[in-house]
Queue: 3 jobs
Job 1
Amino acid sequence: MFDNKYCYSFPTVRGQQAGRPFYIATCPLRIIPKIFLFDEEEVPAELRAQRSLNRTRLPEMVRYLVDNPKEYVFSSLTASVGTEVRFIPHEGAHDLGILQVPMDAEILINDGQHRRAAIEEALKEMPELGQDNISVLFFVDEGLKRSQQMFADLNKYAVKPSPSISALYDFRDSSACIARYLSMEVKPFIGYTEMEFSTVSPKSAKLFTLSSIKQATQILLSKTARSKFDDSDLQLAVSFWQGCYSAISEWQQVHSKELSPANFRQEFIHAHGIGLHALGHLGRSLLRQHPADWQSKLQNLNKIDWRKSNPIWDNRALHHGKLSKASSNIKLTANILRQALDLQLEGDDKKLEKEFSSNHV
């Protein structure tokens, strides 16, 4: 029997899917941690309706909320109510009304447990966020089997966006802002940057992905994805990549239409992300060892034979004849560039080169 003396009341829109009702409500953030539970008990996965909470994801989500209180966007939570509910329609509006949920009902998060946990932590730092709202999609629970199927269905077709399109649309990421500028204003990237996908198709007229430009520039500037990048970083990145362009004849031939992008990718190392990343590593060493004359030293890149057929790339850029994106392969490729510019190998790069030499005598 439904007891409406002690219940939560949510302004709600009622809908229907697969013959079952569901309810869309808006809830103040401050009540989310209090009434929405997540099955966090240490029980086997087969007895849970949700994956375990990955707490390493929370700090970044919390910082996103706290640092962007006027701009953040959180998508809906999906929850199951483990008891009978009551929907009271407004007069003249059949599917608009009030959803009443008993206070002793178990309300479990089916999708959005990390958002819920992040909200809870963010409210400790910024209680005023509690006045904001988040939408919640309510289903009436039909047992563990149904809840597990709901979780599988909700996540089955979720596709994470590619790193390139994420960089294209993320205006809070300062390294992405630099990468976008480089792609549109600086050779060799102007007109040859794949903005949407994380790989370049064989027949594409593009050369580099936006994500590769972003990552290679982070390496160049000795920064991480979470670092702040300023105008001096941008100016340095522009100077470096323009210097590379002026020293690499194949890049120039592509821009002058003397060499097609497809043929360039087929025959050369530096038509791919591994070449770009290796140049980033080279640039980092060059800036550290020759802060005053690095630009003139960079011109020695014209001495390098970048063709895949050059045996110098075997077991470095190429593994069993195929390009390798492994970190060690990128660094070994960068070591060849360092040697061509008479740079000293330092630290891990020197150790890696020594191991390579002992294994490939």
Job 2
Amino acid sequence: MKKSAWLPAVVAPVVVAAAVAAPVIANAANDPVAGTDPSAASVLASVAAAKNAQYSGSLSQTSDLGLPELPSGSGGSSVQGDASDVLGLLTASHTARVYVDGPHKQRFQLTQQLAEQDVVRNGSDVWTWDSKERTATHVVLPERTAAAAPTDGATTPADVAQRAIDAITPSTTVSKPTAVRVAGHDAWQVTLTPKSSDTLVGSVRLAVDQQTGLPLRATVLAAGQQDPAFQVGFTSLDYGAPAARLFDFTPPSGADVTTKDLSDAPRHGDGKRDGSGDHRSGTAPTVTGSGWDAVVELPAGTADRTKLGADGSGLLDQLTKPVGGGRALQTSLVSVYLTDDGRVYAGAVPVSALVAAAK
């Protein structure tokens, strides 16, 4: 992606993270649902057992976030095209192939309009490949990192479910598990409903394989709506180790290759905001609030409008509306606020909450 296209590079991934991941940080209630077999707590706990799972399958992702339509990325400026391509991940249905051999070997293949994007992780080596741009990026992760490979705006049921389990708080009502079938597998479905009236999220439904604990489908509904605003789930799934060759990647001849060595990067947790609200790092994102009302902040300079040309400024005006001290975008599940000094705020809350957090 071009360096000048900061808007899709910053806003679109934040929309994905906040619309899919950040809302379910509120997560399951502390106590299991009495009188159920199994309990909701045991269903959610079973997800941990799937971290070493081996499988391959097809994923389907659909989104209806109420985002504005943009002209096709074919033609026009690079900024316009990049944004259209990235926002297409959020507005259009698409499918992907995924191959997993435990927590450190993964391959994700997303195919769109005769182009393919791949993310391949093999231990500490992560490769991303874009066949349309013929660009590859090689990232060397820190040793013993547990971080998963990025998926260029897409996500998996496990991504959503894990965030629903990582920070269990009393801010959520958890339903009695119900039996469902997903991709030919029996699953328990648990519904997480926020108690907060300040969030844009109505509920999150997680379907977990009864035998393995692997999350098979995740559905997010916006407050006051009956149809899913976001859903990702397996349409086919086979257990067993994928072929080892799938996790080896060599960029094609003539590809533009970039290498990023993160082997000496700080471990996860560095650069976070401490209890006093001060930043430990001037560049790391920070989170204020908790649960469904949490707000993610990216620091000043993240979105520098002065670097945009006429096309980029026009695109920004299409996507956002002016608010005090900046511009904002609100979808059915998430809001994004870009301040005049280049800060970015996002959360599953109304724009007014982001403006208040920025003061």
Job 3
Amino acid sequence: MRLRGHTARAARGEERTGDDSRTRPPAPPAWLRWLPVGYVALVLVLEPLTPVEWPVSFALIALPLVAAFAHGPAVVAGVTVFAVLSEWTLAGTPCCAGRHLGYEWDPHYVAAYVCTALVGFLGTVLAQHRTRRERTLADVRFVADIAQQVLLRPVPHRVGDLRLESFYLSAFAEARIGGDLYEAVPTAHGVRLLIGDVRGKGLLAVETAATLLGSFREAAHDEPDLPALAGRVETSMTRRSDQISGSDVGERFVTAVIAEIRTDEHTVRVVNRGHPPPLLIRPGELRELDSGRSAPPLNLGMLVGEPYPEDVYPFLPGDQLLLYTDGITETRDPAGTFYPLLERLRSWGPLPPRELLDRLHHDLLEYSHDRPRDDIAALTVVLRPPEEAADASARRGT
């Protein structure tokens, strides 16, 4: 899941600390932590090389603020004391540009001591405020991660002879939850898949996604066919929209694909509600499962009032189905050219599900220069060939 987002939480270094169960903010980069040391070294190098009337040691007044960027209030306070003592020492050091003894209490240097202490006080307050904000942000991110685990929980990696994988990539590193969604539910009717994209951003999109996913997870077990399942989900969305006030509520809709794979029949059934069509990948062939009968997005079906069309396609052993949101095809390079998804997939050839999504993820980041403009979600499922399934059964037996 979400290599830069969903499964990358462990790599971000967020840890639980203390009895208050708060997360620890990520440590600042090493160069920022060592910047005060480099700043002091630069002053010590320049001080003996400059004329007497240019006391470079006055630059140490800014040292507490330099430390406040990466360190806590206690360290900044200690750096302030160090800066004052260093200024006092340099003021009376004969080696510094021929300076004689007795400058320690020169009015200019005394003023520098006072200014350094004042800047140190302000830097300490700034560092305390920064660390408090970082802890608050870490708490919010931790809660958002928990919310995303509930909202976009991991799909089962294996269901019978099916192998499934998914990933989610946020357009913004600070955002953990967006309007793209996916789900895979094993049911008595087959494995039912959902991929969707909520119109808009922010909390309203998250609330819409939660409503849609909750309805799909429940109705997937009850409804015998896909059109009825799509209708059930749309009814839940419409009912929820009627309960919420706001000028944008009536404009909320979701483009989605609902699919059902029946391994006993070797078929995949698809109901497309205004979403990019799924891709069927098999050796030597790549095709869009698009019959041209896409229905309106969810929550806009009342505008048509017609039954939801269902398309049936063969899904043979070794076939792979890729469902994705338009954030992939709308990814652009610096020149503004859209990402050529079909061209890329043809050049790669058939890949295992995890390898396919990993390669797609890295290729999207490289293509956009690590600056995607929209959230991205993808879900892929492959039907294992009989010989592979037999080998797996034999390995489990031994």
